[in-house]
Each structure stands twice: as structure tokens, then as C-alpha cells.
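Q: What would this chain look like folded?
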Amino acid sequence: MYLKGTPSNLDKAQKVLATFSTASGAKVNWHKSTAIWASKNARTWQWGTEVGLKWVPNGEGTKYLGVLVGFHLPPEANFDKLMVALKNKLIAWSHNLLSLAGRILVANQVLLASMWYITVCWNPNPRMTAQIKGVIRNFIWGGKDAPARAKVRWETLIQPAAQGGLGIIDPKAQSEAFLAKLMVKGLAPGGEPWKEIIQSKADQIKLLVHSMGPDTTNVNWIFSAPKLKRIPCSMWKSIVGTWMKVRPGLTKTPPTCTAEIFR
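A: My prediction, written as C-alpha cells:
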């Protein structure tokens, strides 16, 4: 749940969950539940300790759908787990005698694929990206997790085969594509909490499409925003920063009919 952190709101949420539990037969395991206080101001009240709810300290995280989330969570928290998974898969595949084409396929479909789930909402910094590239480069040219001399520059590796490359997916470019797509989805109609966060941070300008029908009155033209508000959270900062980087290279033709808006 995403809600304003006040004792009264939490009391209401507890009552709603109790009603849901009675109606559905499901049970809320409060002793397995965690709460994150996402604010710079210290929390001056206690709530939930009597039912076993645990509050996550600033700088620490809790797993949500396999990803560590938290307030002021260091980027290394998810990166370390990602690198362990990447190297474990590399070690498992290093025992196979694969051709260059086979190693390229494994790199794209197995090794790099293991990081897309996390990078959908997180952008690795340059140091992390360099480490990921190093692991992939070593596997491509040496077949194992050991330093190997690259025969071709990385910029050539990530080019399509038709352009003289090997078709390796660039982890940085792929991550930026995911985050830019998330930004676009966040500004689409909908009342999901994560969309409300993005929409509250974006200087949106309403697109004048009222004549196209009642369903288009809340449409926003994201290219009209001259800038985006400053965001202290590292996760949202990476999403917004990526969007600002990708946006200039995209086509900025406004929709002209309702079908184009909802396409």
C-alpha cells in the first residue's frame, strides 16, 4: 500500500484490511509485513509494533517482488545481488564448449536477461555498467569469468550483425529504454499510486483535445513540459533523468485524433 504516513491513516488501512480478511477468508501476516517511512523528517510516533509490523530503517531495504526497496537505499544494494546472479549463470555456462555464436546467444538470452527485471525501475551508474560490460566481454572472448583480451571494441560488439557488429545488447541503452518507457506509462491515464508519484513530479501541460470527445479531457502532452521538478529519490531521479536524456531524440508529433491518443 502507498499512503500518507499518519497514525489515523494506518488505523483506517488496518480496518479496511480486517474487513477484507473477514470477507475473503484471507489473513494479513503483520509479523511478516514491513513499512517504509519515506520522508526526510523523523517519525515521531509508533504504530504497528503491537501486531508485529516492522519499520525499515533509512538506508536499509526490504524485498518487494524480488527487488530491494527502501528510503535512501544505496544503489549497491540491488547491484550486488545482480552481479552474483550474473556470475553464477556465467559459471554454469562456462563448462560448455560454445562457439562464438553460442556465447553471443547465451550472453543476450541468459546472462543479460537476468538483469532486465531489476533495470526496469533502476538505472546502473557508470561504474556498475562498466562491471557488467566486463563480465559480458570476458564471456564473449574467453568463455568464462576471467580476464580476456577483447578482439573488437565494445561499441562494435553492440552493433547489429548487418552493420558489422555481433548484436550484443547494450545494458546501458536497454536500461534507459525501460526507464523511458516507464515514464511514458506513468503519465498515461490511471490512478495507480506509482503513476500519481510520477505525475506529481512532472510539469505536465494539458493537450487541447477536448473536441475529440469526453475521454480525452485529461490527456497530457509530455513533450510540452520544459523541465521536470527536482527529485531527491534516487529511483525516481534515474527515471526522470533518463527521460530527459531520451526525449530530445524522439518524434514530437502531437496526436491529431482520438485513435492516435489511445493507440
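The longest strand covers residues 34-36.
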